[in-house]
Amino acid sequence: MSNNAEPQSLDPTQIEGMTEENIYVALFEGLVAYDPKTCTAIPGVAESWERNDTGETVTFHLRECTFSDGTPITAKTVLDSWLYYLSPEVAATYAYMPCMVIKGAADYNAGKTTADSVAIKAIDDKTFQVTFLGPCAYGIDMLAHFAFPILPMHTIKEFGEDWIKPGKFVGNGPFVLSEWVPQDHITVVKNESFWNKDNVFLSSVTFLPIENSNTAYQKYKQGEIDWANDIPTAMLDEAMLDEAMLDEAMLRDDSQIAAMNASYFYSLNMNNPVLSDVRVRKALTMAIDRKTLVEKVTKAGKIPTDSLTPPMPGFTPSKGNPYNIKAAQQLLADAGYPNGKGIGTIQILYNTSENHKKIAEFVQQQWKENLGIDIELTNMEWATFIDTRQGHEFQIARNGWVGDYQDPSNFLEMFLSTGGNNDGSYNNPEFDALLHDAARLPVS
Question: Is the pTM above the cut of 0.90?
Answer without folding.
Answer: no
